Amino acid sequence: MCSTKPEVDVREALVDRYRRIRAATEAACAPLSDEDMMVQSMADASPTKWHLAHTSWFFEQFVLSDPGFKGYSEYHAAFNFLFNSYYEAVGPRYPRPQRSLLTRPTAAEVFRYRTHVDAAIGNGLSRLTDQELNQLRPLIELGLNHEQQHLELIFTDIKHAFAQNPLRPAYVQAPRQTSVASTPELRWREFDAGIRCIGHNHCGFAFDNEGPRHRVWLEPFALADRPVCVGDYLKFMADGGYARPELWLSDGWAACQARQWEAPLYWERNDGCWMQFTLHGMQPFCEASPVVHVSYYEADAFARWAGARLPTEAEWEVACGDSVVELDDDAFGPVSLHPRPLSANDADQPAWFGDVWNWTQSAYHPYPGYQAASGALGEYNGKFMCNQFVLRGGSCLTPRSHLRASYRNFFPPEARWQFTGLRLARSR
Amino acid sequence: MCSTKPEVDVREALVDRYRRIRAATEAACAPLSDEDMMVQSMADASPTKWHLAHTSWFFEQFVLSDPGFKGYSEYHAAFNFLFNSYYEAVGPRYPRPQRSLLTRPTAAEVFRYRTHVDAAIGNGLSRLTDQELNQLRPLIELGLNHEQQHLELIFTDIKHAFAQNPLRPAYVQAPRQTSVASTPELRWREFDAGIRCIGHNHCGFAFDNEGPRHRVWLEPFALADRPVCVGDYLKFMADGGYARPELWLSDGWAACQARQWEAPLYWERNDGCWMQFTLHGMQPFCEASPVVHVSYYEADAFARWAGARLPTEAEWEVACGDSVVELDDDAFGPVSLHPRPLSANDADQPAWFGDVWNWTQSAYHPYPGYQAASGALGEYNGKFMCNQFVLRGGSCLTPRSHLRASYRNFFPPEARWQFTGLRLARSR
Amino acid sequence: MCSTKPEVDVREALVDRYRRIRAATEAACAPLSDEDMMVQSMADASPTKWHLAHTSWFFEQFVLSDPGFKGYSEYHAAFNFLFNSYYEAVGPRYPRPQRSLLTRPTAAEVFRYRTHVDAAIGNGLSRLTDQELNQLRPLIELGLNHEQQHLELIFTDIKHAFAQNPLRPAYVQAPRQTSVASTPELRWREFDAGIRCIGHNHCGFAFDNEGPRHRVWLEPFALADRPVCVGDYLKFMADGGYARPELWLSDGWAACQARQWEAPLYWERNDGCWMQFTLHGMQPFCEASPVVHVSYYEADAFARWAGARLPTEAEWEVACGDSVVELDDDAFGPVSLHPRPLSANDADQPAWFGDVWNWTQSAYHPYPGYQAASGALGEYNGKFMCNQFVLRGGSCLTPRSHLRASYRNFFPPEARWQFTGLRLARSR
Amino acid sequence: MCSTKPEVDVREALVDRYRRIRAATEAACAPLSDEDMMVQSMADASPTKWHLAHTSWFFEQFVLSDPGFKGYSEYHAAFNFLFNSYYEAVGPRYPRPQRSLLTRPTAAEVFRYRTHVDAAIGNGLSRLTDQELNQLRPLIELGLNHEQQHLELIFTDIKHAFAQNPLRPAYVQAPRQTSVASTPELRWREFDAGIRCIGHNHCGFAFDNEGPRHRVWLEPFALADRPVCVGDYLKFMADGGYARPELWLSDGWAACQARQWEAPLYWERNDGCWMQFTLHGMQPFCEASPVVHVSYYEADAFARWAGARLPTEAEWEVACGDSVVELDDDAFGPVSLHPRPLSANDADQPAWFGDVWNWTQSAYHPYPGYQAASGALGEYNGKFMCNQFVLRGGSCLTPRSHLRASYRNFFPPEARWQFTGLRLARSR
Q1: Which chains touch B (3+ CB pairs under 8 A)?
Q2: Which DSSP string corresponds to C165-190?
Q3: Would the CB atoms of A383 and C248 count as touching at under 8 Å?
Q4: Phi then psi for A426, rounded to 5 degrees?
Q5: Maximum CA pair distance of chain C?
Q6: Which chain A residues have a beta carbon less than 8 Å from that of B37?
Q7: Do D230 and D291 form a contact (C-beta atoms < 8 A)?
Q8: Where do the domains of chain A lie, and which CATH numbers do they carry?
Q9: d(CA D319, CA D196)
Q10: Residue C101: which of D94, D101, D164 has the nearest Cβ?
Q11: How many CA atoms lie within 13 A of D402 on its CB side?
């Protein structure tokens, strides 16, 4: 059985979901000035304003273009050029690294654009026949999940931008400090060899890259019951982790040297004492917090130093098993703006979701039998299946309602500005 | 005699001058949003907000630090780092290419910073003894001339940024169109050989690079009585000017090829018809307007094609002779936002100032006997005397009150985003 | 049973093998001048002279340093710095991209270095006790297989260098032209789902990355009975293969555009007619020859265009099954200097080895349970398990005696100068 | 009077001169292997083999193409493409940075090419009518002076290449060591203000950039009677010369920091003690030797530190006055391979020529009235008159017969691999 939830009115639920997800995006902008929403600190990141516009363009391009929405009038002829991210089938695009040059449209106009799109979607949803709605629902769901992905990017991108500013501004002030916990002991959970099934089971929304569901053979393995924490990572650093090439992949060592890494991103040494830049500004460390902002290379080197390895994505998914993400009323915003310290009793019920994205050792490749959709939406996931690694589990920034066991995030191995951490595995 | 103006109260005049020059800078921001004031489209350009802050920092650093202003309290400890442009003696600096990352301080705070500095200067000026005032006056004058240089940069930099936006926004709408004139005939003014004097004559303010006044030997030469106009330049282009290496310097040809130049900066061909981007948005051409936004390389190639050459700076200054810049009430803002068409009767009284900056063939080097001041202000001009060419005359953006015959502007030969044009010379 | 060959004297066989493999390397240099042996046309390639020295350094560093060879005197103190390729544990290295700057040692001296090492190895092999020999044999085998890898690189690297020379010199003149065959029909070989074993079976030499042998689950698949040929590839090109982003991975399309690919490497269009540069100089095409010098990106795009995909490395190895490489007297040199046309009857007994290296869709990752050796030799393979794809089968340049079913070659997806091609697979 | 030499047979003298200059080039290759002659260590330098071929191509292109040499058959059709350096008018060229990829033609064939050209020139010179000879003589003289320029480059370029080799090979072993002298005292020679004439006086060969001869006004100045020596320069270094931005031009300081300069090129600190790489291998310093291998930026910074400045080229030429270069039988080869120590009595007769090229503060610009020749040979000098500084005096590598007071060498301000030093000037 796919769901045990009582039948509710599908249309009403969709409208509610649309409203809450779009509102969550705009809520994220509340602490930001128009100037903040302009900034782009590297080609991988985008201005907040661009995220706001692009997610609206996505609905305009892929939903409002449907005959069911006939009568919809495009907001601005140039926006298809300005706010298309990477869809070759939709036409040429404004160059990604120059998005911060777009002082116009202003933030105010982008919010008007959002309102224009929201009104059109809202009117349409109340007017569509059931048949039309059923047909469009997957596209709307895709648009909403896409919006949720960009919500997380709004946070990661503004954090990167603020970190370049010597004033180290806080996105919001830190909540009252929790008492500092010590790192909980790490325990291993054991798994036997055998044929297992992974991939999405067709129950609820999933991106195309999560299927087809298929069998894999797994050798016996063990997985740590908690992510690697700051306290663990400090030991790696104290043991010369950033100065010992034998711990690193060749490309990783080259990156480490070329970029002069000596700690995770956003760590700063002031007067011999490590601090970290967070969305709450400069903060001290808590050893019991999951380490975050490490590249695949650092995660891999740490695991080797620890006599372990990174899990494969299949191992992660199998270990995760039937765990589901607990939802509550706040399921559409971030859980917190920085990973929270683990407490000793977390270990009884390992939390698979929502601390940090866990690097796996699996290259991001198609599952057996995967076929990208035809047309522009086939570009959503399929064309990136190269030179990236799969991450699992979701971070504290990922809305709870966006996560599931089969979810495959992916980034290149040198990326550090996402909320990326790791969990250890070993062969038995 | 240096001046025939009646004696007025020096202190009052200085206060008035300070107020008007600072106000002109802020007037230039009126059409810009906070977002516009954030943008930096290349390392050579700076955000408007940065110009606003840097010019205030200049007064804070070099004037308000004077004992005469004791009691002045620095606005913000970090601003010396953020808004120092290039003064090594003053300490380290925020990297120039990343100025657009400074979403904070906000524009609103930068304006408060200006008010803070203005108040301190204003109070000081009314309180200083005559002796203190006389001593500080050269520094205040330097600060004001510095502010005027940045006023011009605010215009050139925002123009470059707007040109990167596919919406091609106008800074302000175009004034009513003047009737299109035909290019006035070019006539040559002849000058004999002999020893001449150039450099500043100690009457009124001058930058240190304008002196010492000294003798030069000039061979006989002729100088055109008007700048090269769009109509002239179109003939060069039609004759293959951008495709004939024999017309170009070697480095110029390399730049032309590498950057795929085929017209001055901001020219765009739409449907086979040339248009130009201006501070009034996309505009048609007027053949009688001085050509603008050409590099030294293009100016040099044009001159060679025309069977002429660029003048030396000494030739330009000698030709300019006793011409003075006519001042009126608007002497503190730009004359216009784009060079205006010449009219046939301009030729009777050649206007040496205020159309376009004229490239000369003179490398920007120290005059004989030049000594840079000691300390940070010695870095104002002296350390740039390499790899640049002198430009003379001032553009339509340069405030009239800022110009004089001995003025030496300088840019590297590949620069095109300034309002740079040329006037032909030839040896006789 | 691992082998059915009669017992021969192991020591004698090893000496013979050493002699023939080292001689094959030197035979490859016969057509080259001292100048040819100096050239390095890109950082990925090395001068022939460097290959000659590095393979000798490998024996000196990892075999002759053994106590069994006591009394060996190092040839030159600087050679460890000059000819170490990438072994961090052995110390710093001369920068790879500058290898062509080493005019000294001269080629003549490098040959003397080889003689010095050969003599020491030869004397040692005749003098070692059986126990010492048994202990050293794996290292000597590794050195010999390493030498064979560099033999192939000598050919690929000099080909790349010669291709940069407008004279397009031939390494050797082409053999008599075989009659041009038409492309044999492609047939599919079907394989059922199930658990299969892959990896090396401990019989004979293997690199460490070929193990541990382990189980995998394979879904049903089919594999083409021949590689993609030039005739097939021309159809892809004629159908706009290089101009249709929907066929390409995102990184692949970016590479294709940035590098302006419009055909495989070494193809040149003269007067509208395609020719290819080969080790025999410029040659016409044979449609029945396997296509070669394509990147992973091109292989992947071709497969997508053909409605198929690349095989995984497990599929390739399973399909290859018990095939063994037939050896003859020429097993130590290249089979040919360019892939030979397939003939129609090849299809009856598909040749798995020796045409072109086949790109698989498998990222180059450790097999379950893989552990790199400790020390410098652990760097041989393990540290490269990132950002590369596995290739299978061996090319016409690979010595027959060097190949086997479990062999895993690897290159980054944009590499084209190796003899890389592809074979189609599909899911059933 | 231009010359006091007795009339000799012009044709015979020219043949002799041709023979000796060409022989000097080949003599420079004697210590080099074919491999050495292939190397190119940076884009600014060229392989010896390329110099050998290019200077022959120059005669083929600009002399043997003359109708007077009818019947001459081009040596190889591709050589015009391969060995044209920068003459746009002659057609496209092989890319400069890739000259080391040309293993073919071999060095042996390039020497055959030289013989082919020499034979054709030799036959022609004996066969031409007097009128033809007179007409061709300027071109032949240009070819010979061009060859002499490349002779110096052969030395500077191989030195740069050898310096990249950790073996630090010597071009030839050092001559017996002269006893180490102390730095002679520096005295100033004073010059009055006035109108002076500079430029070539039409007596003997000169490059076109040395004319027209013209008047200049010079303010009073003084010039040091000897170049800056190693002993002087060590004081600058000891006084923090490479760490004090106030001594440097802005671009110079940027270069100093980016390239991490802390001494002239080729200086190496071993165990705290400075040594220098020379064409005789690693050598200790002599404090009385002129400092060499400094950029314009370093020369300028040194001069500022010393309370002096660099001379203008006019000052240098005026100071040099009627000095002529003393010629002897060795006038066609280098004087020495490294600047020799000055001795105290040198000061009585300041040697203007042949120690090091002296940076002047003059940008390399056309003299008043300069016109480049039409056609390809107009590209020889004229198109480089931008972004370079003039150097005067000639180095120890420059053949004596190649120098004169009006000679203008030029390099960009960051160049260090030429034999460049400085002499101090000051205004009075």
Answers
A1: A, D
A2: STT---SSPPPPPPPPPPPPPP-EEE
A3: yes
A4: -150, 155
A5: 66
A6: 35
A7: yes
A8: 10-163 (1.20.120), 188-427 (3.90.1580.10)
A9: 11
A10: D164
A11: 31
Dist CA D221 CA D192 (whole Å) = 7
Alpha-helical (H) ranges within A227-332 are: 230-238, 250-258, 296-305, 313-320
Å from B65 to nearest chain A CA? 23
User: pLDDT digit of tens for each residue in chain D (428 aa)?
Assistant: 455 454 568 899 999 999 999 999 999 999 999 999 999 999 999 999 999 999 999 999 999 999 889 889 999 999 999 999 999 999 999 999 999 999 999 999 999 999 999 999 999 999 999 999 999 999 999 999 999 999 999 999 999 999 999 999 999 998 876 666 788 899 999 999 999 999 998 888 999 999 999 999 999 999 999 999 999 999 999 999 999 999 999 999 999 999 999 999 999 998 888 999 999 999 998 999 999 999 999 999 999 999 999 999 999 999 998 777 777 767 899 999 999 999 865 655 668 898 999 999 999 999 999 999 889 999 999 999 999 999 999 999 999 999 999 999 999 999 999 999 999 999 98
Cβ(A81)–Cβ(A92) under 8 Å? Answer: yes
H or E element that contains C410: strand C409-411
Nearest Cα to Cα of residue A208 among A418, A363, A379: A379
User: Does residue A222 contact residue A425 with C-beta atoms inside 8 Å?
Assistant: yes
Phi-psi region of A176 (alpha: psi -120 to 50; beta: other; left: phi over 0): beta
> Which of B35, B48, B159 to mutate to test binding with chain A, by most A CBs within 10 Å of its CB?
B35
List CB contacts (< 8 A) between C363 and chain A. Answer: 363, 365
Residue type, A298: E
Query: So what's the ipTM on this one?
Result: 0.95
With an 8 Å Cβ cutoff, are C217 and A216 in contact? yes
In D219-272 the beta strands, taken as DSSP E runs, fall at 221-224, 267-270
The distance of B231 to chain D (nearest Cα, Å) reads 27
Helix (H) or strand (E) holding B218: strand B214-218
**Interface A:C, Cβ pairs < 8 A:** 84
Closest chain B C-alpha to D320 CA, distance in angstroms = 20
Contact B294, B416 (CB under 8 A): yes
The sign of the CA dihedral B136, B139, B143, B148 is positive
- List the helix and strand counts (H, then E) for chain A: 9, 12
Put simply, the answer to whether A246 touches C88 (Cβ < 8 Å) is yes
Chain D residues with CB under 8 Å of B217 CB are 195, 215-217
Q: Say yes or no: B427 contacts chain D, CB-CB below 8 A.
A: yes
pTM strictly above 0.80: yes
Q: Which amino acid is at A116?
A: H
Residue D282 identity (one-letter amino acid)? M
Q: What is the spatial distance between Cα B367 and Cα B212, in angstroms, rounded to a whole number?
A: 7
Residues near B75 by beta carbon (within 8 Å), at least 6 away in sequence: B60, B113, B116, B117
Residues 81..120 of A with a Cβ closer than 8 Å to B: which?
81-82, 94, 98, 100-107
Query: Which residues 6+ apart lie within 8 Å of D371 measured at CB?
Result: none
Query: Of the candidates D113, D108, D19, which has an alpha carbon nearest to the alpha carbon of residue D57?
Result: D113
